[in-house]
Write a structure and sequence with these properties.
This protein has 13 helices and eight strands. By secondary structure, it is of the alpha/beta class. The protein is globular.
Length: about 300
C-alpha cells in the first residue's frame, strides 16, 4: 500500500500580484517532507487548480517534483467531467516524477452510479500509474456510493479512495468490504482520526499544509494503535480545522501559512482572503493551542 498515512493536498502559493510563488512552493514542499508527511498531492482542489492554466499546472508540478527529489511519493490531481478528454490526457501522460493519480468523480454532469463506474473503468484501462478515487459530493453534486467504490476497488490499478462524503456509515461499508490492499483515506480533516480508528489507512489533508508534524503524529499514532496520543493531537487541531474551512478552502489555511512565513495568503478569484473577524478568531485559537509558537 503505497499511499497511506498523511498525504497533504498542497496549496499553490501566489505572489501578491497573483503569479506563482516558486520560492514559497519550494519552501512548502520542504516543510512537509521535513515534518513527516508520507506523500504529496499536487493540483487538488486545495491547490486552486481550477484557476491555473496549462502552463502554470506544468510549472507547479515540475517545481514540486524538483524540490521533493524523490523523497516521498507525489500524487497528481487529474479529473474532468469529459471522460473522453480525461482518458486521452491520462493515456498521454508521461512523467516519472508522478507516482499516482487522484481523480475526482465527474462534477456537474451528475452521472448515475453506472456512469461513475464506466468513467473510472475507462481511466483505469489506459493509466500507467495507480489511481486513487476521490468522492467529494459537496463539489461534484453526486455521491459515489459504497457499492460503487467497492466495485471499482476490484480493478487492479485502482488502489484507494479519498472519501470526503462526511458519511461515516458509508466509509464503514467500504472498510468492511474492500480488499486488504485498498487504501481508504479520509478526505475530511475533522474525520481523519475517526476513520483511521475504524480501520482506515490515512488522510489527504488540508490542515497538514500548516501543521504537518502535528497531523502526521496524530495519524501515525492512531495507525499504530496509540489512541491516547492520537486523540490528544486530534482535539488540539479540531477547532482550528473548523476555522480553516469557515470561509472557503484554501483561504483559511493560506492565512495560517502567511503567519508561519511560508507563503502569502493570496488566493485567486472567485476565492477571497478571509475576513478580519475570522483572522482574529484564528489568531486567538492559535495562541491558545500555541501551534504557531512551536514551529
Amino acid at each position: 500500500m503505497q499511499f497511506k498515512g498523511t498525504g497533504v493536498a498542497l496549496v499553490t502559493p501566489f505572489n501578491t500580484d497573483g503569479s506563482i510563488d516558486e520560492s514559497g512552493l519550494r519552501k512548502l514542499v520542504d516543510y512537509q517532507v521535513d515534518n513527516g508527511v508520507d506523500f504529496l498531492v499536487v493540483q487538488g482542489t486545495t491547490g486552486e487548480t481550477a484557476t491555473l492554466n496549462l502552463e502554470e499546472k506544468n510549472h507547479v508540478l515540475e517545481i514540486v517534483i524538483q524540490q521533493n527529489k524523490g523523497r516521498i511519493p507525489v500524487v497528481l490531481g487529474i479529473a474532468d467531467n469529459n471522460t473522453a478528454a480525461l482518458v486521452k490526457e491520462i493515456a498521454d501522460f508521461d512523467n516519472d516524477g508522478v507516482d499516482g493519480f487522484l481523480s475526482a468523480s465527474p462534477h456537474y454532469n451528475k452521472p448515475s452510479q453506472r456512469g461513475i463506474i464506466a468513467h473510472f473503468e475507462a481511466i483505469a484501462k489506459v493509466s500507467k500509474k495507480p489511481v486513487i478515487l476521490y468522492n467529494v459530493p459537496g463539489r461534484t453534486a453526486s455521491n459515489m456510493t459504497a457499492e460503487t467504490t467497492l466495485a471499482l476497488s476490484k480493478i487492479d490499478n485502482i488502489v484507494g479512495v479519498k472519501e470526503a462524503s462526511g458519511n461515516l456509515e458509508q466509509v464503514m461499508q467500504i472498510l468492511k468490504g474492500a480488499p486488504a490492499d485498498f487504501a481508504v483515506l479520509s478526505g475530511d480533516d475533522a474525520l481523519a482520526f475517526s476513520i483511521a480508528a475504524l480501520g482506515g489507512h490515512g488522510v489527504i489533508s488540508v490542515v497538514a499544509n500548516a501543521f504537518p508534524k502535528e497531523f502526521s503524529t496524530m495519524m501515525n499514532s492512531v495507525l499504530n494503535g496509540d489512541l491516547s496520543t492520537a486523540k490528544k493531537h486530534h482535539f488540539e487541531v479540531l477547532e482550528i480545522t473548523n476555522h480553516f474551512f469557515a470561509e472557503g478552502n484554501p483561504s483559511g489555511v493560506k492565512y495560517c501559512l502567511d503567519l508561519l512565513g511560508i507563503c502569502k495568503e493570496t488566493v485567486r478569484l472567485p476565492l477571497t482572503t478571509i475576513s478580519d473577524e475570522l483572522k482574529v478568531n484564528m489568531k486567538q485559537e492559535l495562541n491558545k493551542i500555541e501551534l504557531i509558537s512551536k514551529q
